[in-house]
Amino acid sequence: MAKNSRSGRKDGGRSSSDRTSGKPDAPTSKSKGGGDAADAAPKKTRRERAAERRQAVQAGGKTKSQTGGKKEKRGGFIRFVGECAAELRKVDWPGQKQLISATIAVLVAVAVVGAYLWAADEALSRLVRNVLLAG
Description:
By secondary structure, the chain is mostly helical.
């Protein structure tokens, strides 16, 4: 065999893994004896499988969801109110001392932000009056 100019190898530049397909040899004939029980069941045709899929998505079939879970039965307004009441029973309501301290903190924060906005408004309004409109 001639030497390959690209790889410098005599075998055409192919490695041993290139010469084989890497796939196991497929059997040339099927064995007819000792099969599984699944082999004994007849395969469904394409039409039969399509008919089963159509039945599964019809109104009488199972409902499907994107997550794969089952849909819960809808209950309406009464069920909604009952679930809201159940969630409100789970709430850890604050005591009087905690409620008073949280209210004071909110009032102080509102006063600080209000004072800042008032000061910014006064400064900007004087700037506009004296610089931009003093023509």
